[in-house]
Design goal:
There is one protein chain. By secondary structure, this protein is an alpha+beta fold. It has three helices and seven strands. The protein has helices at about 1-35, 55-70, 100-115, and strands at about 75, 80, 85-95, 115-120, 125-130, 135-140, 150-160. A hairpin with a 2-residue loop joins strand 2 and strand 3 (about 85-95). It is elongated.
């Protein structure tokens, strides 16, 4: 019987410590909520994510394709839908010796001639642009790819709050019965 009494005592002590710890946590949470209550005031609605109407995917893709083509970079469109967000990808190849300068010139042209703005700074070798509800991102490829291979150029486009259907998501008309 002594062993049972000892076990009961241990269990009671653990429960007591658990209750004490719960009270301490509740006290800390109450103090935190009271002390931090003032900074959590309603400041009104958030500003819109972008200004103006949403831009359609076809217009954005066409604009960036022409900007890149003006700098000698030919790209092809690869539309896709990811988790309800509209995304597009432009891929192509360019001579490794001039890919860096061509991409930087294309970004400059998009800003000066087409109204794109500088996007968030993501570090060296990454170029970003924003316009309306779209963000364009490209990484400057390595200037020294394998011998005889052109550098791969990828421009990723992502939109928020719509942007119209892409060419890949436009449903084909149903065949009419004959």
């Amino acid at each position: 019987m002594r062993r049972t009494e000892k076990t009961d005592t241990i269990v009671r002590r653990r429960r007591g410590r658990g209750a004490l710890a719960s009270l301490a946590v509740a006290a800390v949470m109450t103090a935190t909520a009271t002390a931090c209550g003032a900074p959590f005031q309603d400041l009104g609605p958030l500003p819109p994510r972008f200004s103006g109407p949403p831009l359609p995917a076809d217009a954005v893709v066409s604009e960036l394709t022409s900007v890149l083509a003006a700098e000698g970079i030919t790209v092809a469109r690869q539309p896709s839908e990811v988790l309800g967000r509209c995304t597009e990808r432009l891929t192509g190849r360019h001579a490794p010796a001039t890919v860096d300068s061509a991409l930087r010139a294309a970004v400059g042209r998009a800003r000066s001639e087409h109204g794109w703005q500088a996007g968030p700074d993501l570090g060296n070798g990454t170029l970003t642009l924003t316009k309306g509800n779209w963000t364009a991102l490209t990484a400057v490829p390595s200037p020294e790819p394998a011998q005889g291979i052109e550098s791969l150029v990828i421009v990723s486009l992502t939109c928020v709050d719509g942007g119209g259907p892409t060419a890949a998501t436009t449903p084909a008309p149903a065949p009419t019965p004959s």
